[in-house]
Design a protein that fits this description.
Blueprint: E1 3-8, E2 16-23, E3 29-38, E4 43-44, E5 49-50, H1 55-80, H2 87-97, H3 109-118, E6 124-127, E7 130-133, H4 137-157, H5 168-181, H6 186-205, H7 234-242, H8 248-263, H9 267-272, E8 278-281, E9 284-290, E10 297-302, H10 305-313, H11 321-334, E11 340-347, E12 352-359, H12 367-377, H13 383-390, H14 395-401, H15 410-423
Helix pairs in contact: 1-2, 3-4, 4-6, 5-6, 8-10, 8-11, 8-12
Amino acid sequence: MATVNFRLRSKANKNVSIKVYLSTGRGNVVELNTGFSINPKDWSKDTDRPKQNSAENKIIFNNLKKLESYIFENLNTDLGKGIVIDSFWLESKINDCFERVQKTDEGIITNYIQNIIDTADTRKVKVKGGYKHGLSLSRKNSYIATKNIILEYQTKTRKQIHFTDINQALIDKFEYWLLKTKNYAVNTSSKHIANIKTVCIEAENKGIQVNSFAKQITIATESDDDRYIQTLSFAELDDIRKADITSEALQNARKWLLIGCEIGQRGGDLLDITPENIRYKGGNMYLDLIQQKTKKPVTIGIIAPHVIDILENSFPYKITTQKLNDHIKKVCETAKINAMTEGKIFDKDIGRKVFKSYEKHKLITTHSFRRSFCTNYYKKIPTPVLMGISGHSKESIFRVYINAPEDTDENADLFMKFYNEIHKDKEPQLKVIKNGTED
């Protein structure tokens, strides 16, 4: 059974350091300074705590009690994670308990990232045409996740990471740990590596000493062959529309699904629309919104009669993305979207996604809506028009998104199609060409 206690190492008639020692059994004892000091005459040998004979000593007594509780709270959790309980661990808990980490030391990468998080709402971000204030919520959360994973890695390696430490060996070991120990997907691991590289470049630009290797960090990504894109075809959407669904929650989810596959927006943007986003012009329905990620204003023309009916007569109520993801799987199951399809599903037992063949309804998420829109209308609608609605900035990215290789005939075919549309109503005219005689 683990024990925490305190003691003095000196009996001198002056203030001496109070030490904490932690025993986890079998001779495993760790002892460190707490950062507090006291005169031995104010120390009780019976309780191994300060005598409460002055206001100052009462404060020290309470701080030691707080530290004892904090150590026990974290000990069981970290033992369960297989974390080594040693002097590095104990030192980090003492610092965490009393928030002693020098936040002004920007040479420590986690401190610098924390500063980014703290100033997320006021940081200048470059956008098309200038700058704006404030990181997006997803970007801020990405930095929080990277900071937390670095802190966990530091606990494993028992070493705090400074910008000057970030060489190839460290990045290789860190990436190996993410992929093999944490079982993260390639893209998840790469996001953390990319955040580290971004932070290093920014820190160096601000005059902080950074290892020269940081700018050479390479970011790995999954190959296109590994991206299994799940979409719903027009025929499958028709099956979903006609499916016999009695549950109010699933009927509501079906409405969001049918709308989502016709407007081509991300899940968060979809669930934020209200009847106020709808307007009419010339008898046509338009949906206006501003995309959260890109901050781009987008207008979508609504043509599908069943979607117009939903928006006008039975607008769906808002739910969380997580609930919608759960409900649409049941909606698709009811509609018999059961074709065996290759994809990845998160396995809670092993803590990572497993790739194999599943019934298709199990693979459908809110992200399928936008991809279905882009895939279904590709080559039926000019690609720049689709990109303007979906928010893709480059055609190359758009093609990867829908898993469509470049078609060199596409522009030529479109030109001929529109040329014929332009000239279809024109009557052919006979033009007389003079041959140089008066006959």
